[in-house]
Each structure stands twice: as structure tokens, then as C-alpha cells.
Amino acid sequence: xxxxxxxxxxxxxxxxxxxxxxxxxxxxxxxxxxxxxxxxxxxxxxxxxxxxxxxxxxxxxxxxxxxxxxxxxxxxxxxxxxxxxxxxxxxxxxxxxxxxxxxxxxxxxxxxxxxxxxxxxxxxxxxxxxxxxxxxxxxxxxxxxxxxxxxxxxxxxxxxxxxxxxxxxxxxxxxxxxxxxxxxxxxxxxxxxxxxxxxxxxxxxxxxxxxxxxxxxxxxxxxxxxxxxxxxxxxxxxxxxxxxxxxxxxxxxxxxxxxxxxxxxxxxxxxxxxxxxxxxxxxxxxxxxxxxxxxxxxxxxxxxxxxxxxxxxxxxxxxxxxxxxxxxxxxxxxxxxxxxxxxxxxxxx
Length: 349
Ligand code: ASP
Hints:
2 domains; 4-stranded parallel sheet; 10 helices; 349 residues; alpha/beta
């Protein structure tokens, strides 16, 4: 792929950043609004800034409306349009931004330049907005040749995309990366954590397949029983991200619930445990309450976020019919989404 060091692809997928108030006063995506606002932003015409090519997806979406087919649309647009640009900024709603960033990290293969997903809590057209800073910094970061992975940028933090999770509904610092430090911190200085950056791909950018495979997520709660688990895991479901307590614990003494999990894993459903906690990961060797889950074929998901685990499961199930291949992929570190050393400390991966 060729590169113009001073040019960035700005892919508008939707979200608050480019929204305008609708007839009922509620913010909604508005075609053309971002391109118009960008053309009028003096900051973007500064000599320090790259040239920007705006590509708008149709339809623009509030990210609460996004589906996996939208992740595929975004990934394919990046594959088709990134050539000639130093990098890409995806403008996206914050609600499901962590899912899209995770999905892109698994979908885009052989990436050799930055793809930065950003958004804001207040639209760009409002005076007291966080959108300007997020957009300007993301566009600058997208020209940095050190970065060759999918990242998120909001409010000073450049985070690995598949490590980010939304932690505030209204705060400008809406995202955290609880189990990996930021790739870079943007203040008066730009401070990189270079040792964290993923190696560059070859640049022969490809998109992994993504089909509408039925995978689901289930959060354990006190009182959940085998009937609920059987319903959730009913055919044709092929994969489950099980949000367990603490270090991977669950109601291990509930025989019917454990039997429901065993029946599913025996017929090839891939079940991966992540933790409901914001920090840390799964160690299913620690408590007796986790043992029966492990014996039922539940895989320890290490310190992956629920968003990373779900999107990874979907991408792996789209690629492989064989549950063994999917299980192997879920326990491997594919794009820096799980801490290998920590996964060992947390339990067998
Ligand atoms: N509902 C909006 C969205 O996710 C919220 C935002 O962008 O911050 O599209």
C-alpha cells in the first residue's frame, strides 16, 4: 500500500460527534453535517494538520443501532479506501465504540498503519464540545508511523482498541483500558508506551470473513439456573461469552446449570469465561466454585474485556466450523487483546 504521510481517511460511521438536534430536540445523525463542520474548522486547515478525505457511511448510525454487519462495512471501507493515506480515523458513537474497535482489530489483517476510532460526548457543532480536541488529536495520531493497529482516542488517552471499554455515560474521559496502560498519553507532551505497540503488518490489508453466526453473551447473576442457560444456549447458538464473578467463579454447586453448560460444550458450543470486574482476569484454578465450570468445558478468557471476547468469538466462528479451532483461537493472544503473562498467572490459557 502506498502512503501520503500528510493525508488521513476520515470515515464517518455516526455517533454524537457528527450529530445535530432532530425535530424532537434529540440528537441524531445528520448526513453531510460532519463534512460541512470539518470544512469550516480552522484547526483542520493549520499547517500542522494532515489533509483529510471524508467518507460518510450510509446510513449514519447512532452506535446503539449497530450490528456486526456494520463492523464489516466499516472494515471493508477501510480496506478499500485506506491506500494512499497515512492512516484512518473512524468517527463513531461511544455507546458501542469498544465493540467496533475490538471487531476491527480482529477483522483487519496485515495492517501497517493507524486506525483510530474516536467519538465524543457532545456534538462538534456545540460550543462546549469535546469533539474538537478528540478529532484534532486523532487526526494527528493517525499520521504517526509508529502505530500500526486499531486504537481508540478520547480525552487524552490512546488505547488499544480491543482493551477499551466505556466507563462513563457522560464524562469526557468515557473510556478506560483497565488491563493495559494507554498506548500513548496526549497532554502538553505526547508520551508513548512504545513497548506496548503491536508490530507492523505487511500492508497487504485484508478483511477476515464475518458472517451472522449466532453468538451470545450472558452475565451471571445470583439466581440464574439451568433453564435460563439452556434457553440462551439453544441451537443454533455456536458461542457464548459468560460473564462470571471475580476470577471466573460461578454457581458451581448448581448441578443443573453445570449440566446445561456441559451439554452445550459437548455439542460444540464454545463458551469463554470473562470477569464482570473492571480490572483483572479469570483464574479458574483459584476457587472450588470455578472448578465445575472448567470441567464443563468453559474456557478461561484471561483478562479480555467482554467486548473483545464477543467480537473475537464472532470472527473465529465466522472463519472456522470446527469448534476446536475456535477454542484454540479464543485462548490465544491474537491482537494483544489478552495479557499472555497475566493469563498464565490467572490460570491456564
Ligand atoms: N448514542 C451515541 C452513540 O453511541 C452516544 C455517543 O456517541 O456518545 O452513537
